């Protein structure tokens, strides 16, 4: 007597709630977990041993498709094949997309990451800036494809573009090493892209347009009239001489308004060391205003309250104000002001910027972070900014 198949209905599959495996016949089962998740499983016996193969979730694989997949698996078994082995062989032959290769590379580099921020930077670059490449098979990516994502930012965001090119090259090398492409790497610089893109020495790598420190007070006065969270974040960035990523990623649990200290954890600093930032009265005023209308764990939330402000938001404020400077350039303005108008030691100024000073041995003996001296310095800087 033939085994009964097609016991389930589409309605039953969608509404059944009791945990366990609900058979459709012929080895096909709908697996329902205690949480209510539903997925298809195909079971069979080989050499006296029970085998199983997932066929996907009910959300992605409807009942009719699950039956087709189960019928195909039964046919493979009848022909003496192992359905799991055949599927793995098929997947191995499938060429990865650039997005899949990029994600796999980032994951494989896990042990080498200095901190989560470094990993996030790689992921963001290969997701946002390389978005047009992600759906393409890695063996189909050409020089024109690479230029298509590099040219729009090559001159405007020189450092980002350079890093993006190098990371694309790494992804394509990774894909080649795993047998998913062959031939020359279309993202290679020397002897290839260097013939069609401006040479690096013509770009502004490592330099950030800075405002003369004597012009900062007038700028801050204009900035105070700008609406929005991004403008307040920019003012706070100027007053603390910190980096964009450190400010937009700031959360309220890092801030102590009573003692006037913002503690940036090591995972969010460029040097992978905790950085305590003494807050001037002007910086505290900004945070107090933010706290009064707090809606998020982030000090400067974005449009979605569970996400921080965009890393381009402060740049947008500068463009709106027609200020031909960069956010990072205010750190240079601060450093010039310290060196030219104050008597604070170089070590204190560098510590205020979150830089590592001296050799490892020197840092080991200098266990303090000169917080009190830096507090006086940052208050003097804030007073200059709002003189």
What does this structure look like?
This protein is an alpha+beta fold and 387 residues long. The chain has 16 helices and seven strands. The chain has a four-stranded antiparallel sheet with strand order 1-2-3-4, with helices on one face. A three-stranded antiparallel sheet has the order 5-6-7. Strand 1 and strand 2 form a beta hairpin. About 4% of the residues have low confidence.
Give me some keywords for this one:
three-stranded antiparallel β-sheet, elongated, 7 strands, 45% helix, alpha+beta, 16 helices, 387 residues, four-stranded antiparallel β-sheet, 10% strand
Strand order of the main beta sheet, please?
1-2-3-4
The total of beta strands comes to: 7
On the 0-100 scale, what is the average pLDDT? 86
SSE succession: HEEEEHHHHHHHHHEEEHHHHHH
Low-confidence stretches: 201-207, 358-367
Assign an overall shape: elongated
Distance between the termini: 95 Å
Fraction of residues in helix: 40-55%
Taken as a percent bin, the fraction of beta residues is: 5-15%
Structural class: alpha+beta
Question: What is this structure, in a nutshell?
Answer:
This protein is of the alpha+beta class and about 375 residues long. Helix content is about 45%, strand content about 10%.
Task: Walk me through the topology.
Elements: H1 10-15, E1 20-25, E2 28-32, E3 38-46, E4 49-57, H2 63-78, H3 83-93, H4 98-108, H5 116-129, H6 143-154, H7 158-177, H8 216-223, H9 229-240, H10 244-248, E5 255-256, E6 261-264, E7 275-278, H11 281-292, H12 313-320, H13 329-341, H14 346-352, H15 360-365, H16 371-385
Antiparallel strand pairs: 1-2, 2-3, 3-4, 5-6, 6-7
Helix pairs in contact: 4-5, 4-7, 5-7, 6-7, 9-11, 9-12, 14-16
């Amino acid at each position: 007597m033939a085994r009964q198949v097609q016991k389930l209905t589409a309605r039953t599959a969608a509404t059944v709630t009791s945990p366990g495996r609900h058979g459709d016949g012929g080895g096909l089962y709908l697996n329902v977990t205690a949480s209510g998740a539903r997925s298809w499983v195909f079971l069979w016996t080989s050499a006296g041993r029970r085998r199983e193969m997932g066929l996907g979730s009910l959300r992605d694989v409807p009942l009719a498709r699950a039956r087709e997949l189960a019928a195909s698996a039964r046919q493979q078994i009848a022909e003496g094949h192992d359905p799991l082995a055949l599927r793995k062989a098929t997947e191995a032959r499938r060429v990865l997309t650039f997005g899949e290769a990029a994600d796999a590379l980032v994951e494989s580099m896990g042990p080498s990451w200095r901190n989560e921020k470094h990993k996030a930077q790689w992921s963001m670059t290969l997701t946002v800036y390389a978005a047009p490449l992600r759906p393409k098979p890695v063996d189909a990516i050409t020089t024109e494809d690479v230029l298509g994502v590099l040219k729009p930012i090559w001159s405007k965001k020189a450092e980002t573009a350079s890093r993006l090119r190098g990371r694309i090259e790494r992804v394509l090398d990774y894909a080649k090493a795993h047998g998913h492409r062959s031939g020359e790497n279309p993202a290679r610089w020397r002897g290839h892209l260097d013939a069609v893109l401006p040479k690096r020495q013509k770009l502004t790598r490592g330099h950030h347009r800075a405002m003369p420190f004597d012009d900062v007070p007038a700028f801050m006065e204009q900035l105070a009239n700008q609406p929005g969270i991004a403008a307040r974040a920019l003012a706070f960035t100027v007053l603390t001489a910190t980096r964009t990523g450190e400010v937009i990623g700031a959360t309220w649990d890092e801030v102590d308004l009573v003692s006037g200290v913002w503690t940036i954890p090591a995972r969010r600093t460029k040097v992978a060391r905790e950085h305590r930032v003494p807050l001037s009265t002007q910086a505290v005023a900004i945070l107090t205003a933010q706290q009064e209308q707090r809606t998020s764990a982030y000090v400067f939330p974005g449009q979605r309250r569970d996400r921080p402000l965009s890393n381009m938001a402060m740049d947008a404020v500068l463009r709106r104000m027609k200020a031909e400077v960069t956010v990072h350039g205010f750190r240079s303005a601060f450093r010039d002001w310290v060196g030219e108008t104050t008597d604070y030691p170089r070590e204190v100024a560098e510590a205020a910027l979150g830089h590592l000073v001296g050799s490892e041995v020197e840092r080991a003996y200098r266990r303090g972070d000169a917080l009190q001296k830096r507090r006086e310095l940052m208050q003097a800087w804030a007073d200059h900014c709002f003189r």
